[in-house]
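User: Can you model how NAP sits in this protein?
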Amino acid sequence: METVLISGGTGLIGSHLSKKLKENGFNVAFLSRKRNTDSIIPVYLWNPDKNILDPEAISAADCIIHLAGAGIGDKRWTGRRRELIIDSRIKTGELILRKVLELGKNLKTFISASGIGYYGTISSDKVFNEIDPPSNDFLGEVCRKWEEMADRFKESGIRTVKFRTGVVLAEKGGALERMTTVVNMGIGSPFGNGRQYIPWIHIDDLCNLYLRAVKDPSMIGAWNAVAPNYTTNSEFMRILAEVLEKPFFFPAVPSFVLKTLFGEMSGIILKGSRVSAGKIISSGYKFEYPGLENALKNLFPKR
Ligand SMILES: NC(=O)c1ccc[n+]([C@@H]2O[C@H](COP(=O)([O-])OP(=O)(O)OC[C@H]3O[C@@H](n4cnc5c(N)ncnc54)[C@H](OP(=O)(O)O)[C@@H]3O)[C@@H](O)[C@H]2O)c1
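Assistant: Here's the modeled complex, given as structure tokens:
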């Protein structure tokens, strides 16, 4: 049985993905900064700030999925926060690679999260695909460095996959939980002019993509992990309000309010272009939730 080690596996994506991998016959272990005695998944410890990583974690792994990273939308982007957002993804990945090389580990696969922020926090008519270059803004820089780190695994002869992930829709956690809180309070409305796109993906589809990346040796390089349905912020909030049977209001939350509250980070809610799912569809993947309404109805079934 092959073992998949997930850094940051205790988070939103890792907790769903670990179940999916186990159901499909893989051993799973987490790489975490915290000892968790309640976890049914074995936890190996690391302290990236001190360059400490339990070598047993690497020895046991056939595949490593790198999900660790400080929350991008959790706090205002001060200088220190920006550093943490970068270091918690890139220095951590470099630490894993150093250990793999030191131990002479014959790792089969390295899979890294990346984000659609690669293409920039902008609203435009363009549909971005995997051959487009990274943008020059902060998230573009984070994703470029994140992927360059992943490419160093490839240069060491390890099959490497990178998922440029959209907003992950899960019942609990992440951006959707914040949106549902607002809608459940009865004050759901678009953000800014509401015409910006929100590239999204249902958590089950994302886990299917990671599972496929673990199993399919022909999968290499960058893949957009987004549903094939282009949804503006206004449509998203309206459909969410409908599914939750709550009111939907105009006017929208004005941009200046969001800019005052979130600073530069407001760009991730006020801006957004379309991102193509064409490459993954052409490779034969069939989305379980290609449309937003069904994705949300699955997550919030009528009681
Ligand atoms: N969720 C989304 O919508 C989305 C979209 C695009 C990309 N992504 C990316 O996918 C990855 C996983 O996302 P997620 O939603 O599962 O994130 P999450 O719920 O925030 O979990 C990330 C995990 O990373 C670890 N972590 C946090 N801060 C860290 C630090 N300073 N140093 C090292 N590890 C740290 C934590 O694990 P321990 O506390 O156990 O160490 C945490 O459970 C992230 O890199 C995220 O940016 C997510």
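A couple of observations from the model: The radius of gyration is 19 Å. Residues 8, 10-14, 32-34, 48, 67-72, 84, 88-89, 92, 113, 115, 165, 167-168, 174-175 surround NAP (CB under 6 Å).
User: Helpful, thanks.
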